[in-house]
Each structure stands twice: as C-alpha cells, then as structure tokens.
Amino acid sequence: MALSNWTTYLGRSTKLLRDSSVKILRMEGADAPSRAPLTLFRMNSQQDIDQFATGCDADIGGTSSVHLELDTSPERNKGSESPATGRFWGEMRLQVKPELQGRIRGGYAGFRSKPRPTLFGEMVDDVSNHQFLALRLRLGGDPRMRNSYFVNLQTDGPITTDLWQHRLYFQRNDGGWEDVFIPFENFILTNTGELVQHQIEMMRERIRTVGISLLGGNSGVSGSYDLGIDSIRAVNEEDVTRPPGK
Q1: Looking at residue 232, which CATH number applies to its domain?
Q2: How far apart are CA 8 and CA 51, in angstroms?
Q3: Binning pLDDT at 50, 70 and 90, where does residue 22 land?
C-alpha cells in the first residue's frame, strides 16, 4: 500500500474510532437524533477528488470519454462560494467499436465514491435522520444531456449490484450553480441497470457509496457533457431552499 493511501487509511480509522467514542461519551441515542445537515462529500480539493472513481463505456469497448478533475476556473466557480470544485466532463457517444456492434451498448459515463476501509471495518454514512439528499451542482455542456443524469446510492447490503437511483432534475439553464434536493424515499432500487420488481426500503443507516451517472444511451443522446459538483449532503425540510416562485 502506497504511503499516501496508508495515511488516508489510518486517518479514516482514527476518525471512525473518534466518532464512535464521542457517541458513547455523549450517550447518543438517549437524546433526540440530530437534524443538522450532514456533509457526505465535498469536491473542493484534490484530496476530495481522489475519493472518487470514474468509468464509462470505453472500459468495455465503447467510445465515450470521462474525466473528473478539480476545477479552479473563476468563471465556472462563480456563485459556488468555493474557489475550486469538481468537474465531471467528457464526450457522450453512442457508438461502440465495430467488432463489438450488437454485443454491447454504449452511451454511459459516471463516477462514484470509493469504498472506505478502516481497521474497524468499512466506513459508511448514516442518513436515517435526514429526509433529503442535497447536491450543489452546475450544469453545462450540451443542453440535450440535462435529463440524462442520475444519482446512485449503494448501501451496505448483501447484493453488491443493487443501486438506489433517482434522476437529477435541474431548474437552471444558464450554467449557474443550484441546489438539487431529492427525498430519500423517492429513490428506486435497481440492479445492473434494471428496475427491481419488488421494491424494498432503503437501508439508510449504511450508505456505502454515492455517485452520479450520465445515461445517454437510455435517451439516445450524444454530445459533450459538463457537470460541476461542489458538495453532497443529507438535509431535512428546514434546510431545503427553493428558487423564487417555486
């Protein structure tokens, strides 16, 4: 294990031990659960970006491209309240390599948080006391892509291919930053891209990974995509902000 990875591993282990100790000392569970906003991930430094993995159809013979980078552009970050944010961008293409036509499907790209192992087991997030997933985002790229973004949550359940999914609905069309709020209860359970017939309740006490995917193949659209990401949080009704007139 590289030194930087080992340092991160020990840091997560120390944080998990510290948080668990604080809960015991504070006797959390006896008091009312906290409704304060919970930050799951930020994308304001290279270390933040390194917590995520990317993938696209090119991994299996498609022709799309994917990048997840730290964006320090003052123009794109205007209104984000951060000097640097994450930028998920690339080209969405529906074509695949000639020898694979009819055998695979192109038109997808995405990123997700990496699993977080520690000395005491894998680190997960408990959002059971929160009602909404809140994402601060900036939509750019080809306007045809705006309805093809999805949020994906993976819980620490027995079926590793299960994903809880919800489409991202944007209010702005001017390239500005906005907050998108999704009720956790509105996520649907999918498996390998297909809707699971028998829906169950999400195990919100153990959120393992969070990600965003672009599924151009589902809607038959191609072109450049560009999504800015500042933060991903869990919040409650009192923290939900809505644009004027909504």
Answers
A1: 2.60.120.430
A2: 10
A3: very low
Give the whole-angstrom CA distance, residue 187 versus residue 86: 24
Residue 115 carries which DSSP code?
P
Give the burial class of 87: count Cβ atoms within 10 A of its Cβ; 0-12 exposed, 13-18 middle, 19 or more buried: buried
Kindly give the residue spans of alpha helices, DSSP state H, lying in the chain.
Answer: 3-25, 46-49, 74-77, 216-219
Report the DSSP beta bridge partners of residue 218. Answer: none
The CA-based angle 67-73-74, given to 5 degrees, is: 155
- pLDDT score, position 135: 98
| Average model confidence (pLDDT) across the chain | 88
Provide the sign of the torsion angle of the four alpha carbons 47, 53, 207, 179, taken in this order: positive
* Tokens read off for 225: 């995509």
* pLDDT number for residue 31: 61
Residue 153: both structure tokens together: 């949550």
244 located within any domain: no
Same domain, 121 and 218: yes
Round to the nearest angstrom and report the end-to-end CA distance of the chain. 50
Residue 245 forms part of a structural domain: no
Give the pLDDT score at 29: 52
Classify residue 208 as left (phi > 0), alpha (psi -120 to 50) or beta.
alpha
CA–CA dist 221, 66 (Å, integer): 16
Mean pLDDT value across residues 209-225: 95
Tokens 């192992």 -> residue: 117
DSSP helix/strand/coil, 100: helix
